[in-house]
Write a structure and sequence with these properties.
75% of the residues lie in helices and 0% in strands. The chain has 305 residues and is an all-alpha fold. The protein is globular and about 50 Å long.
Length: 305
């Protein structure tokens, strides 16, 4: 692992702040997506459009910033290209489909609890895949405290879960997708740039969502897309929440490591609730404040050497 927050290392602190910024923006996407669904767009179409926007912008960015001599369409070999496909599936199509479909079978609370627990699964996966990377005591304690805080925020004092085998299994699948995504990012980040990896994630995310539309065809609601508020929301999801945030996340993960970087996902419910309070007039409770404090304490402890 590279440095920590508590040592005062300004270089490492910068990466932690970028990870926090990325997760904070991702936390707002639940609100934007909810508004788009209320406007008449399906979750699958929202995901596809935001990834198409992000891919085209990333492609234009690469072509503008790099000469054609340095530009590449494919990885160095077919094995690495298959890893890029896996990134597009685990960080794109399959992750978003399983997360969104889980809401059709179980409560939003169950889905949030399971999906936002992905840092724990990521830490376990990293430990199993890389024997040399051991979790220290502070990382374990900090992660558990942050997970407890996330649970307090999501449950909001209502400690009653409605078990649904199908829905909870789909949410767990989304959680595992992100853990596997973190493993694959570590595998290729040392040999490929974050820009190239991010563009491939968008491309294969779009390609691998096609079978879903073949199985469940739905028309493109162009009349909805022409609404100014819908267009602005989609542009935000595509330009900021997808292109900019995925690029930042992949870059920061390569420098902080998958465990420390993914721990910031615990902050996701905090930013979602704050933004929902500002936009949707949802209330902030005492449990939110307690849970947020636990998350911040847990993140601080997990960053100690």
């Amino acid at each position: 692992m590279v440095g920590d927050i508590s040592t005062g290392n300004t270089g490492t602190l910068k990466f932690h702040l970028l990870a926090l910024l990325t997760v904070a923006i991702w936390g707002t996407t639940f609100v934007w997506t909810k508004l788009l669904i209320q406007s008449g767009l399906s979750p699958a179409i929202i995901f596809t459009l935001r990834f198409i926007i992000a891919y085209l912008l990333m492609l234009a960015f690469e072509l503008a910033c790099k000469s054609r001599k340095n530009f590449r369409w494919m990885a160095d070999n077919w094995r690495d290209e298959l890893v890029m496909v896996a990134l597009g599936v685990t960080g794109g199509s399959l992750y978003f489909l399983t997360e969104n479909e889980s809401l059709c079978y179980t409560t939003a609370t169950n889905t949030s609890l399971i999906v936002c627990s992905c840092p724990l699964f990521t830490a376990i996966a990293i430990r199993l895949a890389y024997k040399a990377e051991r979790l220290n005591t502070w990382q374990v304690i900090g992660s558990l405290i942050a997970c407890l805080g996330m649970s307090v925020v999501v449950l909001n004092g209502q400690f009653v879960l409605h078990l649904s085998p199908i829905g909870d299994s789909l949410a767990f699948a989304a959680c595992l997708c992100w853990a596997v995504y973190s493993l694959f990012i570590r595998k290729v980040s040392e040999r490929y740039s974050s820009i190239f990896i991010t563009r491939k994630v968008f491309f294969y995310g779009i390609i691998t969502i096609i079978p879903y539309f073949i199985a469940y065809p739905e028309p493109m609601p162009f009349e909805v897309l022409l609404k100014p508020d819908v267009a602005v929301n989609l542009l935000f999801l595509g330009c900021v929440a997808s292109m900019a945030c995925f690029l930042l996340w992949n870059w920061v993960m390569a420098r902080l490591g998958a465990v420390k970087c993914t721990n910031w996902v615990y902050v996701n419910p905090i930013t979602t609730i704050i933004f929902a309070w500002a936009v949707l007039n949802e209330t902030i409770t005492f449990y939110f404040l307690i849970g947020s404090a636990l998350i911040l304490v847990g993140l601080y402890l997990s960053a100690k050497k």
